[in-house]
Write a structure and sequence with these properties.
mainly alpha; 4 helices; 112 residues; single chain; Multidrug-efflux Transporter Regulator, Chain: A, Domain 2; DNA-bd_dom_put_sf
Amino acid sequence: MAYKEKEIEKLYYSIGEVAELFNVAPSLIRFWESEFDIIKPKKNRKGNRQFTKEDIENVRTIYHLVKEKGFTLQGAKEMLRNDTQAVRDKMEMLESLRKVRSFLIELRDNLH
């Protein structure tokens, strides 16, 4: 049986890694953490934040509302208070549509 290399996923990510994912400053992630209850990274003994995949999804939701949709912090808080899952569902739907669009454009370009 051939050995198949499997990608090992990290359990925790540093604030720097999370900030890099969204191309923002770590200070913005810390600020959002203070403003939004859904961002609750653990802290290790040194006091460094340790973000889980769920924390990163919560940051992604806030990034979507504030940076992509243009909500104010207060507006984003109200959206999340009303229905966090509905916001995520719309976000996932938009991402799926973007992927389909990219695929169709690539297909069109390959036909010419």
